[in-house]
Amino acid sequence: MMPHAFDVAALGNAIVDVIASTGDDFLLTHNIAKGVMTLIDEHRARQLYDLLPEGHESAGGSAANTLAGVASFGGQGLFVGKVKDDRLGESFAASMAQTNIRYTTPKAVDGPATACCLIAVTADGQRSMNTYLGASRELAPDDIVPDDIAKAQVLYIEGYLWDQPHAKKAITRAIEAAKKAGRKVALTLSDPFCVGRYRDEFRALWKNDIDILFANEEEAKALFETDRFDDALQAVHGWNGIAALTRSAKGCVIAKGAEVHVLDAMPVARVVDTTGAGDQFAAGFLYGLTHGKSLEVSGRLATAAAAEVISHYGARPETALATVAAKAGLV
Fold first, then answer.
1. Distance (Å, rounded) from C-alpha 325 to C-alpha 331?
2. Please, what are the averages of pLDDT over each run of 10 residues along the chain (331 residues)?
3. How far is 127 from 17, CA to CA, in rounded Å?
4. Of 106, 234, 241, which is closest to residue 187 (Cα–Cα)?
5. In the chain, what is the greatest distance between 2 CA atoms, to the nearest angstrom?
6. 6-13+61-112+135-327 belongs to which CATH class?
């Protein structure tokens, strides 16, 4: 097996988060639903971008956020995702470089604009998100460089990508490259509605191609068509891979065959914003796994990362996760 250059190579939606402080009157005036995520088209995205007060821009998207967490631990990540050659596309690439994540996916020269999530934060802390998926949905097989995928210990796939036929083919090509190089493949289910749309295909992936499965309780129950978490856990009992299943305040369960670890959530003084909890949980677990940690310690790194991100607004760490892990005695 060739030496690895990256701990994790991740495939996901490349989205620029634009966060600005506004008042409730701004939401009312511009017909923005408060405290929820709304999918919007390109015209609406351009309109809201121009209307929002000056804010902060950073690379976002679930898998990109996970890699930001891996980097915060001190790990090395490669991101594969599509942006357009426009101003927000340049902003995404610059943010990834600043976070020490390798990003070389060719930018689209035509088609939809770079994806963005326009986030209005009001004084009460509510985050009203308006998401335009744009160019992120254009990931194609030609964007996969097999030699790059082969250089990562783990290939991490964002389930949301499964909505696009070209992205499915890109994922298949990446899995083939990872398997050929003897690497591990991880899938995060992303959303129970996403699981509902592609249950049979995700089940086939799980059985045939996946070594590590990330799912929250609702996603796991959706995958295995059950109303009981214990039934979902039983479904992975005979599987040879690793299941990392999160249960919010109840903590998580890490299972590999007969080895099962039930871990409490790491306590926080106050839960401020659960956005990104699953992304950072995956970051902690993948960092631990790729640095020779046991399943239990990897799980504790995961809960530590999730605890950090829910203690403040935003989906990425504010305190270096390497520092968090050191304080918890996990490194």
1. 6
2. 84 94 95 91 95 90 96 98 96 94 96 95 86 96 97 96 93 98 96 92 95 96 95 91 94 94 92 86 98 97 95 89 94 82
3. 12
4. 241
5. 59
6. alpha beta
Whole-model pTM? 0.94
Distances from the Cα of 266 to the Cα of 271, 306, 315, angstroms: 11, 8, 17
> Beta-strand (E) ranges in 122-273?
127-132, 152-158, 184-188, 212-216, 242-246, 252-256, 259-263
Q: Are residues 318 and 312 in contact, defined by beta-carbon separation less than 8 angstroms? A: yes
Q: Which two tokens stand for residue 209?
A: 């191609």
- Token pair, residue 285, equals 């677990």
Cα 70 to chain centroid, rounded:
11
Going from N- to C-terminal start, the domains of the chain cover: 6-13+61-112+135-327
Per-residue tokens: 270:
């106050």
Cβ 290 vs Cβ 5: under 8 Å = no
